[in-house]
Amino acid sequence: MRENDDAADSSGDDHAADDLTHTTDEGDVQMVDVGDKPDSERRAVAAGEIRLQPSTIEAIRADQVGKGDVLATARVGAIQAVKHTWETIPMCHQIPITNVDTDFSLAEDRIELRVAVETTGKTGCEMEALEGVTTGLNVVWDMVKAVEKDDSGQYPDTGIENVRVLTKEKQRP
């Protein structure tokens, strides 16, 4: 419920059914009207990680993956996903992206990706940050899948995990 930052009920529990902003009273799906909301500066940071074999991490560090520069390609994929979130998630508004930062951290058996998205507009950008993370990690997987497969063509050591929103900020006008 990204468009209605104040939609939680007073108890702090999950939203009541009649507080759902993407459905009408009749239960039909709708896009939330944000037309009357003032523009404000917004920022969201999301993160996630991909678990890989240590040998794959070393190949990425040494830029020895046959498909090319894994992290550069994943960075482009993440940014593209941020810019196209409104096309892939129903009821998301198209928002003006003012900045995207990507940061990869390599450990022995995993890569963490953090994506920070900034906008000035009427609605938040956490869905864009999440799309950037998931697509960026999917690109990593695609780039290394040949070396991650086992003898039967499966991926027992590979997994995308712990995708989450770390922060969401809104500077009120």
Descriptive account of the structure:
The protein is an alpha+beta fold. The chain has helices at residues 54-61, 70-83, 85-88, 126-148, and strands at residues 40-51, 97-106, 110-121, 159-171. The protein has two domains: 1-33, no CATH class; 37-171, Alpha-Beta Plaits, CATH 3.30.70. A four-stranded antiparallel β-sheet has the order 2-3-1-4, with helices on one face. α2 (70-83) runs antiparallel to α4. Mean pLDDT is 85; it is low at 1-17. The active site is at residue 142.
Q: Which keywords apply here?
A:
173 residues; alpha+beta; Alpha-Beta Plaits; 2 domains; 4-stranded antiparallel β-sheet; 4 helices; disordered N terminus
What is the CATH fold-level name of the largest domain? Answer: Alpha-Beta Plaits
Helix count?
Answer: 4
Measure the end-to-end span. 21 Å
- Count of extended strands: 4
Helix content: 25-40%
Uncertain runs? 1-17
CATH superfamily of the largest domain: Molybdopterin cofactor biosynthesis C (MoaC) domain
What kind of oligomer do you see?
single chain
The CATH architecture of the largest domain is 2-Layer Sandwich
Strand order, largest beta sheet: 2-3-1-4
**Global structural class:** alpha+beta
Shape: elongated
Rg of Cα set: 19 Å
What's the CATH class label of the largest domain?
Answer: Alpha Beta
Active site: 142
Organism: Natrinema limicola JCM 13563
GO molecular function, one term: cyclic pyranopterin monophosphate synthase activity
Domain Molybdopterin cofactor biosynthesis C (MoaC): 31-170
